[in-house]
Write a structure and sequence with these properties.
The complex is a heterodimer.
Chain A lengths: L7 H12 L23 E6 L9 H5 L5 E7 L5 E9 L8 H5 L5 E4 L13 E2 L1 H4 L51
Antiparallel strand pairs in A: 1-4, 2-3, 3-5
Chain B lengths: L7 E5 L11 E7 L2 E8 L7 H5 L8 H4 L7 H16 L5 H30 L4 H21 L8 E2 L2 E2 L7 H23 L3 H7 L7 H7 L4 H5 L6 H4 L20 H25 L19 E9 L2 E9 L7 E5 L1 H5 L3 H5 L4 H10 L4 H5 L1
Antiparallel strand pairs in B: 1-2, 2-3, 4-5, 6-7, 7-8
Helix pairs in contact in B: 3-4, 4-5, 4-11, 4-14, 5-6, 6-11
Classes of the chains: A alpha+beta, B alpha+beta.
Chain lengths: 181, 368
């Protein structure tokens, strides 16, 4: 190929790169700096409300992995009493179909996303771990009643002046690097 | 003693930095020149078609996310269009507009990945990709706001979409649409006139118009060869006949044309989104009344849409039960890479990489 003046296109590209030196940062230094996730986020670990659950088993039918184990027995007034409600979060694909199908609002997705475990057995969650607690909060996926309690999602679309989150220019991490740092 | 020469066989992939995903190419080389190429697929096979036979119609939607994982939203749409055709379900108007807006956002995002990684293959190591990812991240944020996840959306349902848009979505989308032309200008400034890029991609890997039609190529690969074919115009599904946009075509069908068609399609997608935002009804149902475990009547249907990578189709056979009897997926990229042999022979190994990169191949869709 022949060019009339070789190098002009490259110079234009480099001028753009130079311009970016004076712009606000767009990268997030993840463990030290965190963005607010979406209110509807389908995070790890379902939240289960024992008082609302009737043990109907719609969620177990809706799960495409066959991942939810529900064991019940008949109690007073012929109502179901849940003996076991268990799911393996290592096999869960977080599609949210169980939450969508629950007719009694007894299930919700969680907002947490840092739920790595060291052992496979720890990923199997029973009744206590799935119940609502301080650290274990529901997201607004299919449950709009929880939306008001959650912080607003920080969109990268908005810069700091327009209500976006402030991002640091300088490196933040001063921690030691290592597996258990 | 006469000197014997024989061709040299070389494997590119399956674990190779320049193959996108787990793709293997068996090359036979004469020096540095490619004399024959045989694509070997199947390393990412997960049996999605067979798995679908044991799942209900709603449960298949998360599986379709895993086909073309860079454009999950359009996979969801294509599957839902096929099931709606089978069961004769009418989608509410607001849901159709949401589907169109999301498909076009997905197209912009997918083309950004395609162009970014194509430039990566050309030797501009990761600088253009990161420029494109900056805006792709904003699109993904919008998807995350509405459906709760960043890549595997599971947002479309048979008969509509799963949830209505939140209040803060429309202002954010408007801001994105207003800003985006400036960023597309930045991409063009960065790379379009770059002499090294032009020398690497102009006239390289030409796919002639006749060959493209004969193999049944679709999407930007077909349009770059000068064929004015887009399902959104030719056979308008959903509400695409209400929008005013152009079909972008290339001239010769080389790598540069495939790049430039994708860049132009981003602008056209923005035009469609702008019109859809104006036309969309403010309120209304977003999903038809379809039960979660519904049984469509026995029969068969083929639903197809114009996905970012081409003509994506789902063929569904129902026997009236809760799960399909057979599901077949017609992926665009599998058809497109059958042209690879014609395009590559006679070029050098370094050109093979960029020709393959310009096809925009996603292996999740090829191997299924």
């Amino acid at each position: 190929m022949k060019f009339e003046r070789y190098g002009i296109g490259i110079a234009k590209g480099l001028a753009l790169t130079l311009k970016h030196l004076f712009r606000a940062p767009i990268t997030v230094q993840y463990p030290d700096e965190k963005l607010n996730v979406s209110r509807r986020t389908r995070g790890n670990e379902l939240v289960w409300f024992p008082d609302k659950c009737t043990g109907c088993g719609t969620c177990t039918k809706a799960c495409l992995q066959g991942n939810i184990i529900l064991v019940t027995h008949r109690g007073e007034e012929n109502k179901f009493i849940v003996d076991k409600f268990e799911l393996d979060s290592g096999r869960c694909i977080f599609c949210g179909l169980c939450v969508e199908s629950c007719p009694y609002n007894a299930l919700a997705m969680g907002v947490d996303y840092e739920c790595a475990k060291y052992r496979r057995g720890d990923a199997v969650l029973g009744k206590e771990k799935l119940s609502l607690s301080e650290k274990h909060k529901p997201s607004a996926y299919y449950r709009p009643q929880f939306a008001a309690e959650l912080p607003e999602q920080s969109l990268l679309l908005y810069n700091r002046k327009e209500g976006g989150q402030k991002l640091s220019i300088f490196p933040l991490s001063k921690r030691k690097r290592g597996p258990h740092a | 003693m006469p000197i014997k020469t024989e061709s040299f066989y070389l494997n590119v992939g399956p674990q190779h930095p320049s193959t996108h995903g787990v793709f293997r190419l068996r090359l036979s080389l004469d020096g540095e020149v490619v004399t024959d190429v045989e694509p070997i697929v199947g390393y990412l096979h997960r049996g999605i078609e067979k798995l679908a036979e044991t799942r209900t119609y709603t449960q298949i939607i998360p599986l379709t996310d895993r086909l073309d994982y860079l454009a999950s939203m359009t996979d969801n749409v294509a599957y839902c269009v096929a099931v709606e055709k089978l069961a004769g379900i009418k989608v509410p108007e607001r849901a159709e507009y949401i589907r169109i807006i999301f498909s076009e956002l997905m197209r912009i995002s997918s083309h950004m990945m395609a162009v970014g990684f194509y430039l990566n293959d050309c030797g501009a190591f990761f600088t253009p990709v990161l420029y494109m990812w900056r805006e792709r991240e904003k699109i993904i944020d919008l998807f995350d706001m509405v459906c709760g996840q960043r890549l595997l959306y599971n947002y479309m349902r048979v008969g509509g979409v799963s949830q209505d848009l939140p209040d803060e979505f429309m202002p954010a989308l408007k801001k994105f649409v207003d800003e985006m032309p400036r960023y597309i200008g930045e991409y063009n400034q960065l790379i379009k006139q770059n002499e090294i890029f032009l020398a690497r991609s102009k006239g390289v890997g030409i796919l002639p118009r006749e060959t493209a039609i004969n193999i049944g190529a679709s999407g930007p690969v077909l349009r770059a060869s000068g064929v004015k074919w887009d399902l959104r115009k030719m056979d308008p599904y959903s509400l695409y006949d209400r929008f005013d946009f152009d079909i972008c075509t290339g001239e010769v069908g080389d790598c540069y044309d495939r790049y430039w068609v994708r860049m132009q399609e981003m602008t056209q997608s923005l035009r469609i989104i702008e019109q859809a935002m104006k036309q969309m009804p403010d309120k209304g149902p977003v999903c038809a009344d379809v039960p979660q475990f519904f049984r469509p009547p026995a029969g068969e249907a083929y639903g197809y849409i114009e996905a970012p990578k081409g003509n994506l189709g789902f063929y569904i056979v129902s026997d009236g039960s809760i799960a399909p009897y057979r599901l077949h997926i017609f992926p665009p990229t599998l058809i497109n890479i059958t042209a690879l042999r014609d395009m590559v022979i006679g070029w050098k190994v370094a050109d093979l990489i960029i020709i393959f990169g310009s096809m925009d191949v996603v292996l999740g869709e090829i191997d299924r």
